[in-house]
Write a sequence for this structure.
């Protein structure tokens, strides 16, 4: 079974631009969560989608948004990029019960110049 | 406030030596507890998880962890470290019912041949 895939793997943007990251979950998984990983703040939960609905949200500004499609693929959008948005963005998928294991993708490395 | 503390930023051990990585958490009730490993350029891989029951949890790659409620700790152990264990290890807590995990800052493990 294929793992969680994220595209693109690397991205360079400039301040003020917007960016969309994509995550394809493991086949059959209905939950997708997004995390931001930075050297200063560590790993922080952004949001989780389940069956096309946002089920949980972390403490990030409204510039960070996401959505999930009927095939469970998810996208994350960051508008008006800031230098501090430079990070590794990880997505994780699971079947959807809180006791189900989350499987992480390799991440998208976003650099904001 | 909910938090996870991994007191050791870096740990160096010799191959074949035993290993213990410390994790302390602050949480109102007993959360779900996890240990993840991240190799360079990779996403996170789940080593083990604790939800309830037996406080000694066995995981993959020969790792185990012990939940100690009185100490709010969930330390990770391995009796004999292999060179391939060199990576960064993250402890996480999760409120039952969600994937809104809180991660520690990580412990980077170096293994000497």
């Amino acid at each position: 079974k294929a793992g969680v895939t994220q595209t693109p793997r690397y991205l360079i943007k400039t301040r003020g631009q917007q960016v969309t990251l994509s995550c394809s979950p493991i086949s059959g998984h209905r939950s997708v969560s997004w995390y931001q990983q930075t050297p200063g703040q560590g790993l922080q939960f952004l949001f989780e989608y389940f069956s096309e609905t946002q089920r949980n949200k972390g403490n990030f500004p409204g510039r960070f948004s996401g959505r999930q499609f009927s095939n469970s693929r998810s996208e994350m959008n960051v508008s008006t990029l800031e230098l501090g948005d430079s990070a590794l963005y990880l997505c994780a998928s699971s079947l959807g019960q809180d006791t189900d294991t989350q499987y992480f993708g390799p991440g998208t490395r976003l650099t904001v110049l | 406030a909910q938090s996870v503390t991994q007191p050791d930023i870096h740990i160096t051990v010799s191959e074949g030596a035993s290993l213990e990585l410390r994790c302390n958490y602050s949480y109102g009730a007993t959360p779900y507890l996890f240990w993840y490993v991240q190799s360079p350029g990779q996403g996170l891989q789940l080593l083990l998880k604790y939800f309830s029951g037996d406080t000694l949890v066995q995981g993959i790659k020969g790792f185990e962890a012990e939940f100690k409620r009185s100490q709010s700790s969930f330390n990770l152990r391995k009796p004999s470290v292999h060179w391939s264990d060199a990576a960064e290890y993250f402890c996480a807590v999760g409120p039952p019912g969600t994937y809104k995990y809180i991660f520690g800052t990580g412990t980077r493990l170096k293994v000497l041949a």
Summary: Chain A touches chain B at residues 4, 31, 33, 35, 42-45, 48, 55-56, 58, 90, 92, 94, 98-99, 101-107 (CB under 8 Å). Chain A is about 0% helix and 55% strand. The first strand of chain A starts at residue 5 and ends at 7. The CA atoms of residues 46 and 59 of chain A lie 7 Å apart.
